[in-house]
Amino acid sequence: MRSELIELLRQNSIQLEKKRRKLKPLALLYGFTVVPIRFLLKVAAVLIVIIGLFFPPIVLWLFLIGAIYIGLIFIPNPKEIYHDYIKEGILPEIFKAVNSNYKYEPFGYNQEDLHSSGFFNKTFFRNNVRITGEDRVKGVIENVEVDFNEISFFREDINWPKSIGVFLLIIFLLPVIIFRLITSEGGDINAGCGGSLFVRDTIQYYRGLFLCADFNKNFEGNVIMMPKSIESKWDRFTDSVFGSSFSKIQIENQLINSKYSIYTTNLQTGFYVLSPNLIEAIAQIIETEKVLPMISFNSGKIYMSIPWNRDYFSVNINKSVEGVEYFTNYIDDIQSFEKIIKHLKLNVKIWSKT
Amino acid sequence: MSKSTALIILIVFVIITSPFCFVGFIIVLFLYNSIVRQKNRVGMSYSGIDVVLKKRYDLVPNLVASVKEYMSHEKELFEKITSLRSKIPNATSKEERFEMENQMSQLLGGINVSLENYPDLKSSENMIQLQRTLTEMEEQISAARRAYNSNVLALNDKIVTVPSNVLAAFLEYKPAIYFETTDSEKINPNVSSLFR
Predict the structure, then answer these.
(1) Count: domains in chain A
(2) I need a surface site. Which of A48, A95, A181, B69 has the fewest CB within 10 A?
(3) Per-residue pLDDT tens over the stretch A35-83
(4) Cα separations (Å) of A50 from A47, A55, A57, A58, A338?
(5) How high is the ipTM of this complex?
(6) What is the pLDDT of residues B20-38, one digit of tens each?
(7) Where would you find the membrane-spanning parts of this chain (chain B) (predicted)?
(8) Contact across the interface for B150 and A250, Cβ inside 8 Å
(9) What angle is formed at CA B67 by the lines to CA B64 and CA B70, rounded to 5 degrees?
(10) Is A294 in the same domain as A231?
(11) Which residues of A touch B140 (CB under 8 A)?
């Protein structure tokens, strides 16, 4: 490591440790007061609704609980303050010091690139309800323009235990509800009947590194390498029955053929993009990293999503900042991104777009 | 398998399976479409090769003219390239043409090697652009060849495997020839260089 970088890391570690020591007791206090109170308020709200069926009115109580709950939301979580301090204050400086070309943004992702990647054409990502991005880095690595970030995909799944609980509660309270509706004057019989009885949770089903870079060949068309393990059987069936604008190709590498389905809009483009050297480099990534990245090539760009299910630049308020070594993992993460670009040899341009 | 034998097998198969909703006829139809489509794909990918080889054919005179006067010691190489270029349109078969095109790839690759002896020429902007164009052309030829070979493999598989081989014999389809790589391309890639 360069001496300027070490000096910067040393200064940052001192500042960070001061901040951590200041915030840690507050985080403990927050954990023992605000968090349990919020939980108890939720329980109280449910109990008030149930009791309210027997002894109305309940609106005033619910309003009071709601007001306290909202008030608690405005109390900042010290863990989040610490997290934001690192992401917004320290990491941009580290990135700049590692490579002056890097521009770091703590949150966000490139929506346009993600859609251009063509990954959404496949069923695996179709049911997604939310996408979040973190640690976005834009820059130039060996004359290759890159943009990468951590990305998470979420979908809604039915939570069966909770749904069964709600169902049992409704059965238990049904006689009371019916009694109240019959005895009340001018009551709205449809109230509360809207919506699904199923309780749905938003779950994270895919997390990884999304990378977009200029490809070293200029081409028109689309090539997608989809791991067979996440490819939808329904997609395969519909493609074979109804046809598709993509044709499937087999390349000269058995490892890749066994793990991936490769689709291309044009056979010749597919082979032009997937040169033997590139295939070899991708196979090396699969073997060394033990992951199956999704890869696509679209109009002169490469998109890659590597399912490294971990939090890059993770922040832990309980871990003391002991000198420069604290940042070693961060530097390793930055270098792992660089390694991929160098490994694919995207800098060896054989064709200029001009 | 002769054409008449194949015809007899097909007729017997269709007759035997006709009580079962003509399922044999449907199978034959499906196989026929599949093998004809594959043959068309081979034809299409061959035309893809043809297009890029034609591009290179047109590029060669420009290339030779640009470097000939500076690389005076490589006279023999340029004569070979010019002579080979004039022979290519007269190739009588695919095999002969593929062989000549492979020789052309080797000779053009030889220019790149020889350039090492002319550092001034190598660093000139025009030469760098020309080299890029040549490399790009070779990449495109390689892609077209691999696409063609991939389609040939699929067709040849259908021609020799049961049951499509019966239909292939009836249609008198012969296994197509591969566009083999040049010797220089057969050398194993240096994997260790990827980690440097």
Answers:
(1) 2
(2) B69
(3) 999 899 988 888 887 777 777 667 787 888 889 888 988 899 999 899 8
(4) 5, 9, 12, 10, 57
(5) 0.75
(6) 777 888 888 899 999 999 9
(7) 6-32
(8) yes
(9) 140
(10) yes
(11) 272
